[in-house]
Amino acid sequence: MSHSAQFNQEVNLKGKLPEQITTFWQQGLFNSFLGTDEVSIHYAQFIQQGTERPTIVIVPGRCESYLKYQELSFDLYQQGYNIFIIDHRGQGLSGRLLTNFNKGYVVTFQDYVEDLRYFIENIISQHCADKPYLLAHSMGAAIATRFMQDSSNAIKAAVISSPMLGFNSGILPTAIAEMMIAAKLALNNLISNNPWYFFAQRDYSPVSFAHNRLTHSVQRYQIFIDLYKNNKSIQLGGVTSHWLAQGIAAQKQIFAQLAQLKTPILLLQAGSDIVVCQRAQDDFCQQLHALQPQSCPKGIPSRLDGALHELFFEVDDYRNSALNQSLAWFKQHK
């Protein structure tokens, strides 16, 4: 089953987004609200004209801004959905939390969750009478999952793409990696009030396409690189030890509270993803399906063999598949 013609294709990109996508984007509403600790949280919204339509809330990953989601928003809007996208605190156009805007940092992971909760309960609900769907990527998927655990009846159905349910520690055993993070953080807290980068992390520096671990799509990657080059305010560097420690705590909380996930969830797994831990995704699906058979059909992720981390910015074959599966999941849960 392929409906790829209904989505924008790489051939139309030619080094920049097509005019029809740019025109669509200019008609959006861009606004902000004050999240936890009075941090400014920015968002984008695209409301269908006329009759009441279903709503998709896009929850981006780390480093991302809603500005990156123009092509995806266009494609989903063309399918008849209202679209809302949040920029998480400390990244995108939202308020930064440190004097060095490049550092990936959050006071507590729960702050991300509370921002999303406020967004859905107080802003999206004003425009949409029905419960929305969630489409969440990577770190955004961890945030969305924690939100659904805290608010078990708020979302109709969710797709989590390449979810950050565990970090990929490479050749290091997870326990050793966690001890290193804890040790570096303890030293940081002892010596300085200024959060340090974790080992090998640094300020924003674009990665060449040949060395990128996110997508096989030359065109989509170039548009992403150009976007960040032309919008310095959305640039973000590597992560601090504190952010990593918060991420690990959130991941453990997700697994500890799996029974609270009542929302039907589909997990899309990128087969060649080396950014996040695939074993954690497998464990999540196996355990969640046993508790809630409506989630993770057959108890396994829906795996796109060969795809890299960013399924919605991948080459057309992977992207079309991810989009078709997501929309089919939402239609299945009206």
Q: Can you give a write-up of this model?
A:
It is a single chain. By secondary structure, this protein is α/β, with parallel strands linked by helices. The chain has one domain (4-332): Rossmann fold, CATH 3.40.50.1820. It has 9 helices and 8 strands. The chain has helices at residues 19-26, 70-78, 109-127, 139-150, 174-191, 218-230, 241-256, 278-291, 316-332, and strands at residues 29-34, 40-46, 55-59, 82-86, 133-137, 158-161, 265-270, 302-304. An 8-stranded mixed sheet has the order 1-2-4-3-5-6-7-8, with helices on both faces. α2 links the parallel β3 and β4 (82-86). α1 crosses α2 (70-78), α4 (139-150) crosses α7 and α5 (174-191) packs across α7 (241-256). The model has no long low-confidence stretch (mean pLDDT 96).
What does this entry show, briefly?
The chain has helices at 19-26, 70-78, 109-127, 139-150, 174-191, 218-230, 241-256, 278-291, 316-332, and strands at residues 29-34, 40-46, 55-59, 82-86, 133-137, 158-161, 265-270, 302-304. The chain is an alpha/beta fold.
Write the layout of secondary structure elements.
Layout: H1 19-26, E1 29-34, E2 40-46, E3 55-59, H2 70-78, E4 82-86, H3 109-127, E5 133-137, H4 139-150, E6 158-161, H5 174-191, H6 218-230, H7 241-256, E7 265-270, H8 278-291, E8 302-304, H9 316-332
Parallel strand pairs: 3-4, 3-5, 5-6, 6-7, 7-8
Antiparallel strand pairs: 1-2, 2-4
Helix pairs in contact: 1-2, 3-4, 4-7, 5-7
